[in-house]
Amino acid sequence: MVQTLSHIRVLDLGRVFSGPWTGQMLADLGADVIKVERPGRGDDVRQQGYRAKDDAGNETAETSSFLAMNRGKRSVTVNMSSPEGQEVIRKLAAQCDVLIENFKAGDLARYGLDYESLKAINPRLVYCSITGFGQSGPYSHRPGYDPIFQSMSGLMSLTGNPEEEPGGGPQKVGYAVSDLTAGFYAIIGILAALNHRDAVSGEGQYIDIALFDAQVASIGHIAMNYLVSGTIPRRMGTASPITCPYQAFECSDGYLMIAVGNDSQFRQFVQLLGLPELADDPRFLLNRLRAQNQKELIPLLQAVMITRPIKEWQTELDAMNVPCGPINDLSQVFEDPQLQHRNMLMHMQHSTAGNIPQIANPLKLSATPVTYRRPPPTLSEHTDEVLSELLGMDAAAITELREKKII
Q1: Which residues in 33-54 are b (16+ Cβ under 10 Å) and which e?
Q2: CA triple 330-306-329, angle to 5 deg
């Protein structure tokens, strides 16, 4: 089956999360993604996360973190610190449309693998660098990981309960949101650059993605609220500063998130709760008034919500088209009938880890659907195959490189 990017080859020098996440998305869309790793150790995430077990229940070398980010790729190991290894990578780059890397700013220039060096070999190359702070500016030399960008971008100042509440204070989002957000922006940039190359210029270009930039940009309307009003937003737990009621309510058996988006939904909601008079209360008549008077409104609603279980409230709210949903743990997420209907959990047969679970790509393309051709690779699984296929090396040449510890 032809896929959207089946004509594209990608050299993935990415490590850990942001770079590999970008490469996996391109692989899901059909690109031939060649992952370059260090001989012997590989990508750092091969040492992070839980060990996958094979069909007999024995632990394998494959980790959950690596399996999450590297589906669909071919693994090649190359010693980048050696001149011979650098030459192998240059030759591979000459055969590729896209290169992805997330080394520190300037690191690859030491090896002659920076954009200007590779552009001279392959002018059509789209070269995407993902770093913590970008290629320029006073912080560009700094390393960084997701929590740093969650904190510096303002995200942690928005996340968590108010200081005055028990457990109040800044909180980290529960996954590496900065890495994945930067990866999504990188994918957009790569696709835009490929389109420009093929439709306009005939040449590739350089893409500079910073996790810091990407995380600030993704705060979106909350940042704009501040820029327009000059008011620094405060932490509100699950609530919203501009919409109300728009938060989690405690029910008799857990928590239900309710997102009342307009005045008519509010009228239906309070009717269901047996509090119809609140819809005409001048404090709560309009959304902006409800947002201003949350401290008076929420306790009135909460006193009723806690009297019944989640399922009962959800059934009746669904019937009234009032948006709501339970706060699921991950076991509940993957049991959800909607998620199952959408085939968001699938399995692939891995050469050492057996039948491994994978979270499916959420893109649903009608003409070129996502297909899954390869499970995440074992370390160096495709070295011989790629060097033979793309660089024309015979078995003797490959053996010589291996004996020199170049691959």
Answers
A1: bbbbbbbeebbebbeeeeebeb
A2: 5
Contact 116, 125 (CB under 8 A): no
* 220-272 tens-digit pLDDT: 999 999 999 999 999 999 999 889 999 999 999 999 999 999 999 999 999 99
Query: pLDDT tens-digit profile of 78-108?
Result: 999 999 999 999 999 999 999 999 999 999 9
Query: Comparing C-alpha atoms, which of 272, 278, 275, 276 is closest to residue 313?
Result: 272
- CATH classification for the domain delimited by 9-218+340-403, as one of 3.40.50.10540, 2.60.40.10, 1.10.260.40, 3.20.20.70: 3.40.50.10540
CATH of the structural domain 246-329, one choice from 3.40.50.300, 3.30.1540.10, 3.40.50.2300, 1.20.140.10: 3.30.1540.10
- Strand order of the β-sheet with 246-251 is 246-251, 254-259, 324-326
Q: Residue 175 in contact with residue 150, Cβ under 8 Å?
A: no
Measured CA to CA, the distance from residue 354 to residue 401 in angstroms comes to 31
Q: Report which of 79, 81, 66 is spatially closest to residue 17, judged by C-alpha positions.
A: 66
Q: Which residues form the catalytic set?
A: 179
